[in-house]
Each structure stands twice: as C-alpha cells, then as structure tokens.
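Troubleshooting log. The previous structure file for this entry was overwritten by mistake, so regenerating from the original sequence record. Sequence copied from the archived sheet and checked twice against the printout by T.R.
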Amino acid sequence: MPPMRVKNCFRYLRNFLLNKFTKIKKPYSAQIELTLKCNASCSFCSIPKLPSSYKSNEMTTAQIKYIIDELADLGVNALSFTGGEPTLRNDLPELIYHAGVKHDFMNGIATNGYLMPKLFHENGNLDGLDYILLSLDYPDAEQHNKKRGLKIFDKVLKTIEYANARGIKVIISTVVMRDNINKLYRLCELAEQHECSIELYPCENIIREFSDKQYKIEDIDDLIPPLSLWANMIRLLHKNYKNILTDSLSVQIIEKGGFGGFPNYNQKILRCHVAQSYLFIRNDGFVDFPCKIHPLLSINALKYPISELYKVSEVRKIIQNHDDFEFCTNCRLGCAIASSMPATWKTLASKYIQGYLNGNLK
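Regenerated output below.
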C-alpha cells in the first residue's frame, strides 16, 4: 500500500477511535463549495433556481486557504472541492496544491468536466489532486449534452484520458433517472473500458432552503426512477462489473426508505452521522448543521474557529439527534449515506474497504 494510503488509514482510525470512545469529535471528510455558479443547466438541479445574490458571495483565495488550514488542524482526513462548478474558479489549481501538497489531504474535485481539459493543458499534472468525481449520465453525446445543457460529452472523455495519463483516479458519477436506467450497462462498460470506477445513485428531490425560502425542481418526480427497479438493476450490474462503487448496503438503505422515520426508522442498517462525520463549508464560509440541505444552525467558519465547532452545545445536540428530525424522513442523499458510512465498521467495510479491495479506490 502506498505511504499516503497508509497515512490516510491511520488518520481514519484515529478519528474513528476518538469519535467512538471519547467526547472529542473529528469529521472524516470535508467539502468546500467553491462557488454556486455553474456553466451547465441540468434539468434535475435546483442550483440554477437560486437567486443570484446567493451565488455572488464567494470566499476569496486567502479565505479558502484559511479554511483548508483550519481543517488540517482539526484532523480531517479527506477534502474535496465542489460547486456549482468548481472549475469556474481561476484559483482552483492553487487551492488543489494547498490542500493536496501542503496539507497532504486525500484531495478531489466534483466537476462536470467541461473545463477540465483546459485546466490540465494550462496546469500540467494538477499536483495534489488524487481523484475526480466526474458527471456522466448517458453513454452517448446527444443525450448527455441535452440533459446537461452543454456540449460536454467529448470533454468528459478527454478529461478521463488526461487524468489516467497523470495517475489521477476518475470516478464517474451517474444520476440515475427514468430515461437512463436501461443504459446503465453501457455506462458501466464505458467506465470499465476507460479504467474508471462508477457511482450510480438515483436522482434526488433536493429542496434547498435559504432564508426560510425553498428552491426545488417542480417536476422532479417525473425524473426519479422507481427505487426498487434501481436497486435490482444495481444488484444485477454487480454480477458483471467490479468497478461499481455503489455498495450493497447503500442500496438496501435507499431501497428501504433512507434515513429518518422516528420513532419507527425506515431501516436499521445505518443512522445519519453527517453532522459529526462530514463538514460542508458553503461558498460564503458558513458551516451548516446538521447538513447543507436542512440548516438548523449556521456558523461562520471565517470568524469562529473550526476546531471549536464541535464544542458548541447546539452542535453536540444536533449530532446526538442523528436523523430524528422530521425533515430527515426518507432522506436518501448519496453524499449523506457515503459520509455516514465511516462511522461504523460494518458500513465502512461494505463501501470503502471492499471498494479498495476491488481496485476502485486505489
């Protein structure tokens, strides 16, 4: 195992033991939302509906570096950059270097891929970048470009080519919808041919809340596939493809109704640990608890030390409540499930250890 992977394993074990057996709380991963601006117009995404005032208040390069420094001091193991579309920020290579080289985070970006070939061309190897979570919903250009509202398919393939040449892991992220669920075999085949792992989570009804207002896609239910059909499809795909990261326990959790349902929870496999296991820093520098979708408490991380967040009594109470909140019922956000997985040995083994053994996380 490479030295960096060994170091990450020890970091995880340290955080796991502290979280499990002490009052000290340390998240396993963090994500910084660099921007809410995006060059695509995906039909399933509510970000385009947000007021422009929410999208313009972005942190400076210096402020983001400060946040990265704070996360390193806290002992976070993995860090990723997201948006909107993070490649729209000209300082992205500088931020990747600061996180991945200076602080040795397991470091990644979530992107639609449109600007990635240009980024590689202008910045060489993008030192410090370990993986790219790359959006791809259809195995052909016409449908993918139409759904994303951007001529992007060829640039996704070029991104994979450049990343593979530089030893950067690519994880294809597919939003499974009614009209592409029968194309998943071809997507898995495409991923395998290009030496990529692939995640296949069903389309989500994400309702974003800002200043007591809700923003959502009105016809989103027309896109969401029947969850039982999706679950059975993933099980069938697992028989033929080893590059699928959507693990069996995640499938069960989603199929049974996701998180929440207090006092009769939908499933007994895993409670939500997002408030403890995962830090999401918004584009304006605020951290939301318990999660970015349903903020009960927002704290300005540019003014309040991140290392002190888990000592705040309100935060500790939210952590203890897990998914007891009314809005948690039927939550099946892929990011919430994935970030909760490290909190128990069983779920950690299902998603991350098995994924590593299959070669998908190396």
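The first helix runs from residue 3 to 21. Archived copy saved in two places this time.
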